[in-house]
Design a protein that fits this description.
The structure is a homodimer of 380-residue chains. Chain A is an alpha/beta fold. Helix content of chain A is 42%, strand content 19%. In chain A, strands 4, 5, 6, 10, 11, 12, 13, 14 and 15 form a 9-stranded mixed beta sheet that branches. Chain A is globular, with a radius of gyration of 20 Å. The relative contact order of chain A is 0.13. Chains A and B meet through helix 3, helix 13 and helix 14 of A and helix 3, helix 13 and helix 14 of B.
């Protein structure tokens, strides 16, 4: 089965949408949150944990996997799905963001990016064509083209030049991927376009216009969550999503605190990825329906209740805050694992609840209830 | 149901025995290997992983748990089983070994051991009575009395004095546990005796004689695996097990490389614990039917086969050596977890195969086959 997006319902009072993505590795209900499996593993969790919690799709990082284990090994393994034993849909980013944030001595030109690996200092080169080639080997269901993600804040002129190059790179990526046809789906892989333009509405809008003209299988908002105020992010969403084709999925890259998810689904986003829930899981912070719980804190040492009374995940149905606090206090890996499991379960449930609310045209009410309870403790 | 040991079968040609231990938390087939759950968790694994692989019994450490989270918290939780959510049998050691190996500024007297916590330097005191009190709070099914574990090598005079004190401590422990009755099972907890005497046969034999006279629910060989040659260990087993009551379980404390398990079961040991399989799991060493595999080594980067072709554990049925090697190369926690899972599964299977061989009076043949295959690569 090839890639397909079906828009099932639009909430009557907000921009929120419920849909379904079909891929060669199964279907995913949207809105969906894709746990981050940077190095071909969602940190601390096994594939069966992710299946059990109903994680619909995983994100893996092209940059990281190209460096380690390297594309030769993943090719020999028969692709990323088989290598990591995840049979569901996978999305790979292009490495553009990581080249900018991790690699050293990078040199960006029209041709592509020369950089040194942050692991061993080896010299590497990513061009739009090279990235498509790597992603074809990885074999993800949704793939992203190489883009330039400008840092924040960014001068207007740089942002324009950069956005224009990102558009040209997108065109080269499409050409490399689709071999001259218009179809953005090739080899079972759906190529998305990435919208850049920093926080300049005219640049973002122009980028959208150009990319939509090129016809991608979906559209991603890139260059967000780079240090800007939340209001700026939401503003970009407010003017961007109405310009995007209704019948294509929309992906907000790398953003996803619980509040972000709700605010962005409301503005018409369908796909998310973010390291936040897994990173917090390992740092001892749990998300609950009534806000964050920093479970490693001493205050939880005597609390013989679950992380979240409303949660029925493996962690919450078997272990107490006191036990988790003990695991964090003694640096036990099981603590990282149980807390990560809970956080991703919380995210999965949250996406499911939002979808249900959309289908029932009560997203605004859901949003109100969510924040009323969630924000009692903390704001994000 | 109270504690009970049933000797089911003795191998016709060796000292190997198959039995069954009944406890208030279920039954365990012997010989059994108890994974080490030092701090109320078997490192990297969740209780359901251990259930799935058929781990019969866990070991937890009195010393570690008394320091963190402390007995007050475990008491509030309703005991160790509930605290860590493990419903099967648990065995707690006495802390004697840890006081000697971890604690600082210890002062041993007839009364007990004064020491400083290796965590926070706090002053603590363990007496035989205090340890029984802690273990009653922990609530394990099998409990060990405080003993002195002399270092190796040990002068004869020290070894004698120490063994004699260990016997007096054993008597005080029994008194504290059984409140004047002869029954070594009290409050559902079975108290074992620990045999010391360094590597002096007359001391070991005298210790056995004294402890057997006191009537314990089982007997443990302590003070082993302290740096002595393997031949010395096996020699102690050779002359000790024939002196122990046939109808009581025998526990070899803290020893358990795969070869040790086979050699010791042959000599009549029923219960084992050892950090070796879990520690190796985290260090990137896997046990397989044809010897050890140091999976973190580069040589495995291109091996798209399971750790052990003969193994049907979750790790081996889903992941390749190449993937595990990648996880170790990138410091991913899932690598530690999958490898630990496999190692304990290997141990569980090994114990099960030995039991089957005993029941069929072919332990010698099993031993021969095992070493023929296992020692092709490496000796331990």
């Amino acid at each position: 089965m090839d890639f397909e997006f079906e828009l099932i319902h639009e909430d009557k009072k907000t921009g929120a949408r419920a849909g379904k993505i079909t891929t060669p590795h199964g279907t995913v209900d949207t809105p969906v949150f894709a746990p981050v499996g940077t190095q071909a593993t969602v940190k601390t969790l096994a594939p069966r944990d992710l299946e059990e919690m109903g994680a619909g799709m995983l994100l893996a990082n092209t940059y990281h996997l190209a460096l380690r284990p390297g594309t030769d090994i993943i090719k020999e393994a028969g692709g990323l799905h088989r290598f990591m034993h995840w049979d569901g849909p996978i999305l790979t980013d292009s490495g553009g963001y990581q080249v900018l944030s991790l690699a050293t001595l990078r040199k960006i030109s029209e041709e592509g990016v020369h950089f040194q690996s942050h692991i061993d200092g080896s010299h590497r080169f990513f061009s739009p064509e090279e990235v498509i080639k790597i992603e074809r080997i990885l074999g993800a269901d949704i793939i992203m083209p190489l883009d330039e993600c400008p840092s924040y804040p960014c001068e207007y002129d740089y942002a324009r030049t950069s956005m224009e190059m990102t558009c040209r790179w997108a065109e080269r990526s499409k050409e490399a991927h689709s071999a001259g046809t218009d179809n953005p789906v090739s080899n079972g892989q759906a190529l998305f376009g990435i919208i850049q333009g920093s926080f300049y509405p005219d640049l973002r809008k122009e980028c959208i216009r150009r990319l939509v003209e090129m016809n991608f299988a979906g559209y991603a908002l890139g260059g967000m969550s780079v240090g800007e105020a939340k209001a700026s992010t939401y503003e970009v969403l407010d003017y961007s999503t109405p310009l995007l084709p209704r019948d294509k999925p929309r992906y907000l890259m790398g953003m996803g605190k619980p509040a972000d998810l709700v605010e962005s689904v409301k503005r018409g986003i369908d796909i998310f990825d973010c390291a936040h829930p897994t990173r917090c899981g390992r740092n001892g912070t749990a998300f609950t329906s009534s806000g964050k719980v920093v479970v490693k804190n001493a205050v939880y040492a005597h609390q013989f209740v679950p992380l979240d009374e409303d949660c029925h995940c493996y962690t919450c149905s078997h272990f107490t805050r006191a036990y988790l606090r003990h695991l964090f206090a003694t640096n036990e890996i099981l603590g990282l694992r149980l807390n990560t499991y809970h956080n991703l379960f919380f995210y999965t449930q949250l996406m499911g609840k939002m979808r249900q609310a959309i289908l029932e045209d009560r997203f605004s009410e859901f949003e109100k209830e969510f924040f009323l309870k969630y924000s009692k403790n903390i704001k994000d």
